[in-house]
Amino acid sequence: MAVPCPTGQRYTLFGFSKELDWKPVHFVDSIPAHRICNACGVVPRVSVFLPCRHVLCSACYEQCTGDDEHSCPLDGVPFLEDDVGWTDFPLESLLKRKVKCWNEENGCEVDMTASDIHKHFFEDCAHHSTRCPKCSALILRSKVCAHLRSGDCSTSATQNLAGNSSPDDTSSREVMFTALESILEKHVAEVRSGFDQVVRDISQCDKLTELMHSMNVLRETVIQSSETQARGTNETLIAAVAQVNEVKLALGDKLNQVSQRLSSVGKKVGEASEHATRTCLEKLETSNAALVSHISRDSDLLKKVSQSVSTFERALGKALERATDTICQKVTANAERIAASKCKGSESVTDVQMGHLLGYNTLNVTRYEFCVKELNLLTATANTLGWATFFGDPIYLCGYCISPGVYLKKNDGCLSVHALMQLNKGVIDEFLQWPFNHEVKVTFVDSYKGRDREFSKSLGGKPDREYCARPTESSNLSTFFHEGCDIEDLKRGGFMTGDEFSMRLDLLPLDLE
Q: Which residue ranges does the record assign to the RING-type domain (predicted)?
């Protein structure tokens, strides 16, 4: 059963907190229509957007999903589960909205945030009402005594209580009735299933009784049959015992013959084993004597080899000492000549050559850490204009001349930090691969605590984008990465130090898989 949605700006909430759920709340400003369930009228914490542009709460959405079929309960339009969108109503946003007191009908004119209505209603509000014990009239508690002393109070108690009930009481009773109805339906279903089970059990008992009767009849039949067979079996056993005794006597004679044959075979096997053992021992003694003589000859040879190795080791040590002295002298001479040539070459190197050397020396440099300063000024500019940028000094990474920076963007009252990068014209661009073909990783760094936080990635190498092409002028257009991080989250995480913070830029090879 759907909860009726009150008219005006009074809404029933669900899924936010136990203080606000299922209580009609009068908001000063209207709730956006896309936050209200089109089926039951509640304002849920989680909403479902259907392709037909209708909005449902999670409870109503579960009711419109059948056996592999989904359709809108309002217009019957079918849809796929992957085509729906889920959205969350932030609790902080709801609690900031202004609402009226629940005692508005009793004269309370206080407006407060939704987060304070529970405290105001139960601790601060002075407009709670009660019923007169004499006339049952609905009056303020602060005026009960004055009402009892006045002439307006009578003991007839004929006033219609239902007519004086407030909209909040009516809505609360409807919610209670709805919950009671759902509980009763659940218990009725359980009782019905219990009755069905009892009926099935009774039919099962009847079948078991019939089966027991059949088993008793079968038991009597088996007993009679077994007695008849027992008599016949005794006669058969007597005849079988006589045959077994005859077979036993015949087998005894055959066993005696087998035993005599086994004795003769055992004697022959013993004689053969003794002969084989003597032969093996004689061969083993011969082999041992030959092995001893061979070992004695090898020991003399080993002594001679050891003496030769010692002599070679002494000669090799002397040769290595002489070679070491010669190498040291040549290295010293070469070092002096190289130092002299470097001094002469450094005097003739031009500024252009220095730039080329700088570019070549950074081909293997993939990381650069820089500091973003004057954060307060950047934040103020972004709050005023909606955006702000900061560029660091140009540096060379992997041979590319890059200006790193950050881009602050204002989104719905909060500031997000995005990485910013600009390709400049470098001194060795003709030797590099174009378009720019690296993955860029940007990381926040907390140098004091040794922590870092990766917050942005971007892929280069797309020739249709101007910022990835080889610069023809002094520099290309700058570009920022769409992935960003809320500046307040970074402050709470301890990555901001005063009016500045540190960032690290890494160039990684592009993963082509």
A: 37-75
3-state helix vs strand vs coil in the chain, percent to 5: 50, 20, 25
Contact (Cβ atoms closer than 8 angstroms) between residue 241 and residue 248: no
The tokens describing 435, both together, are 């378009």
Q: How far is CA 192 from CA 178, 185, 306, in A?
A: 21, 10, 103
Q: Give the model confidence (pLDDT) of 13-69 as tens digits.
A: 988 888 888 889 999 988 888 889 998 989 998 999 988 989 999 889 888 877 677
- Is the CB of residue 505 less than 8 Å from the CB of residue 442? yes
Handedness of CA 74, 75, 78, 80 (dihedral sign): negative
Q: CA triplet 314, 319, 321: central angle to 5 degrees?
A: 100
Which residues are registered as beta bridge partners of 458? 440
Closest CA to 443 of 476, 477, 400, 490: 490
For the chain, give the longest Cα–Cα distance. 143
For residue range 187-242, what is the model confidence (pLDDT) as tens digits?
777 787 777 777 777 777 777 777 877 787 887 777 777 777 767 776 777 787 77
DSSP 82: G
- Write the burial class of residue 410 (CB in 10 Å: 0-12 exposed, 13-18 middle, 19+ buried): middle
CA 144, distance to chain mean position in Å, is 60
Question: Could you count the other beta carbons within 10 Å of the beta carbon of residue 471?
Answer: 20
